[in-house]
Amino acid sequence: MKKPVAKSKAKATPLKMESAGDILCGNIWFKIGLTKAEAPMLKTIGRRLCVGSVTSAQVLRTLLLVALAHYDKLEPMIFQDAAYSYDEGFLMMPEYLHGVITSQHAKIEEPKWKVKK
To answer: Which of 44, 46, 61, 91 can bridge 20 by disulfide, Cβ–Cβ 3.0-4.6 Å?
Structure first.
């Protein structure tokens, strides 16, 4: 009796790679991964903050630059999130932050100044 032949599973198609940077001075590049639940929030933020069409990479770079520019205000929040994550038993802080991100994404509304088509 012949064994049934196992069908190969289709591999997931990777998303298109995006990049954004300073053309003149951008000589250090990072490759990061976001979950399928986190990535759409970049598009939402881009629609709220940017006029015109921008890529997720451009939005992410803008967020990173804002975080670096205002690190003095951000640092206490990082320590607070780390302490809360530890106290609540999360294995890693990103687990906790992922929950915060997805709950915020559900609450974000379109900006009032945007024209509906």
So the answer is: 61
